[in-house]
Structure formats: structure tokens, C-alpha cells
Amino acid sequence: MIKTDILIIGAGPTGLFTVFEAGLLKLKCHLIDALPQPGGQCSEIYPKKPIYDIPAFPEILAGELVDNLMKQIEPFQPGFTLGERAETIEKQDDGSFIVTTNKGTRHQAPVVAIAGGLGSFEPRKPPITNIGAFEDKGVEYIIRDPEMYRDKNVVIAGGGDSALDWTIFLADVAKSITLVHRRNEFRGALDSVEKVQELKDKGAIKLITPGEVIGIIGKDKLEGVEIRKDKENHEMKCDHFIPLFGLAPKLGPIADWGLEIEKNAIKVDNSLDYQTNIPGIYAIGDVNTYPGKLKLILCGFHEATLMCQSAYQRIFPDKRYVMKYTTVGGVHGFDGSKKEAPKAVIKTID
């Protein structure tokens, strides 16, 4: 039995940052994740994707963000159960919870923080009849290594942040980039939309809106795509077709834990601490929902911070404290030297 103060379900960016905030309060954390390594989607799906909305980083690759978070929490020595999925949860007489994985590993903690991101997921595929025959033969739904597209002709389909961000990034990598979207309006960040328009005006990319990829051309591998625009069909030669229509999320076994679910997300009380309808179980990051929710890593960090304050009060109900600020107590020692964790200046009243 693995025992800890806060058991975190999900080792993505929000789950990792929870370790840091809990560590400032001298609370120990253990993380469970079905993936074989920490980082969630940032490590598994798009480690080379640039992220633009992390404070103090005008641009940072998703994989680098995970590396930095792992360095940040290293002094607090969290535990990890990786490659296993949280399967069942049982509440004990003392108010704690026992979470068992699909491989039978048991964990016990007075607080459970679900930071499972989108849960288990698979890419949404366009309704093209023969697209399955070309998967990994020129059709990719996830970009793991941008170098794969160097000096290649690439067609991207989609109108969200991923389609826009990868169009911008690959403009300096690929031989040619064509972005196809069904509407003239995009769903992504305004700044990204403006950058794509600038690239189009400079002739650095091709932009087809409104338009839609309706067919795949090729025999043993992708040779091109068929695009419909203005009620006419056009063929375009390309080496890669990347439809980026988002991911279809599934909560998995967590959906059977008795939590209040709304549109495949866990409802929480955002007026204070992001607690679910079951006291002692919290949900933070993309996995939760509440009025005004934004699915941003930045928001997940904020939610983790407030959740840890509430968790401390749950674990130590007889103590009151006031956190004033954090400071660095000594050298972190990420180069192998002696480690000393950051400290929070806290006044505790017993």
C-alpha cells in the first residue's frame, strides 16, 4: 500500500505543478498516470509543439515545459505509479480514500486530486472514406516530431489553436504549407490568426477558406488530397495530410466514481477550492468544468494552487495558517549538487 498526503490522478502539467504547491505546504504527493512517462499530452502527443501562454515564456516547447516542471518539483521527491490506470476508489472509515489501479497497485490518501486532463482520448477524424488506409503513410493526426516534415509539402486541416500553431511553426520547416478550413473564421487565439494571415500575405503559406479536404489521392502512400472550394473540387499534391480537429475525450473508469459529470467533465465548486460533490476529491485542469471555465494550462496551475490550500485545511483541520509569499531557501541543486526545496513563508496558528 502506497500512502501519501495528496494522491494525484494524472501526471500532466497541472498534476506536476500540484506537487510544487503541495510541497510548499510540506504535503507529500504521489501521482498515477496511464502513460509510461510524466507530462500527459505534452509528452505523449506534441512534445515539440510551441506553447505561447505560459507566464515568463514568450514561447516554450511542450516537452521543455514538462522538463522544467520536473526540475521544479524534484526537491519535493514525489512518487510515481506510471503505466497504470486509476480504476477504483473506496472511501475508508477515517475519511481517506484507497485508489486501486488496473494492475492492482493500491494507494491511500486523505485527499485525491483528479488532474487527468482530457482523460483517455483519440483524434477526431474527418469523414473521408479511405483515410484509414493512409494512416502513417502520409496521414497523421498528431505531430510528434516536426523534423519529419522538413522540406515536405504539407496540408493541414482545421480551425483551432493546434491547426494555427502548427501552421505557424511548420512554415519555417516544410517546403510548403497549406491550411484548409471550412469557414472564414477561426476558433483559435486572435494573435495566432493574425500571424497566419501575415504568413499568407507574405506568400509563406497557402490559406484555403472556406474549403474542405474531401478525399485522399494515392496508392501505397499519400500522394495528394482532393479539396472542395466554391462548389468545385481541386486536386493538390502533397507529402503529408494532417487533420487537426481535436481529440475526443473519455473519462474512463473515473466516470464510475460517483462524481457529478457534465459533458464528459467533472463538475466542481470554483467559488473556493475546486472540490467535487464528494468531499476530499478535487478535480483540476482540463478534466473539470464550472461556469466560465477555460481549458488552459495557466488556469490549471491556478486551480492547483487553491486546491492545495484547501487540502491542507482538510488534512490539518486544527491548524490555521497565513501564506505570505515564497522564497528560495538555498540551492536547488538540479546539476547534482545538494538539494534544498523552496520554502513558503507561512505563519501557522495551532
Question: What does the model show?
Answer:
The chain is α/β, with parallel strands linked by helices and 350 residues long. The chain has 2 domains: 223 residues, 3-Layer(bba) Sandwich (FAD/NAD(P)-binding domain); 119 residues, 3-Layer(bba) Sandwich (FAD/NAD(P)-binding domain). The chain is built from 6 helices and 25 strands. The strands form 8 sheets. The chain has a 5-stranded parallel β-sheet, with helices on one face. Strands 1-9-8-7 form a 4-stranded mixed β-sheet, with no helix packed on it. Strands 14-13-12-18 form a 4-stranded parallel β-sheet, with helices on one face. The longest helix is centred in the C-terminal third of the chain and has 19 residues. The two termini are 31 Å apart.
Low-confidence stretches: 328-338
Helical region count? 6
Strand content: 25-35%
- Structural class designation: alpha/beta
Report, as a whole number of angstroms, the end-to-end distance: 31 Å
Quick one: CATH class of the largest domain?
Alpha Beta
The largest sheet, given as strand count, sense and whether it forms a barrel, is: 5 strands, parallel
Using only CA atoms, what is the Rg? 23 Å
Spatial order of the strands forming the largest sheet? 6-3-2-10-22
**How many strand segments?**
25
Helix content: 10-25%
Which fold name is given in CATH as the topology of the largest domain? Answer: FAD/NAD(P)-binding domain
Q: What is the total number of structural domains?
A: 2
CATH superfamily of the largest domain: FAD/NAD(P)-binding domain
Shape: elongated
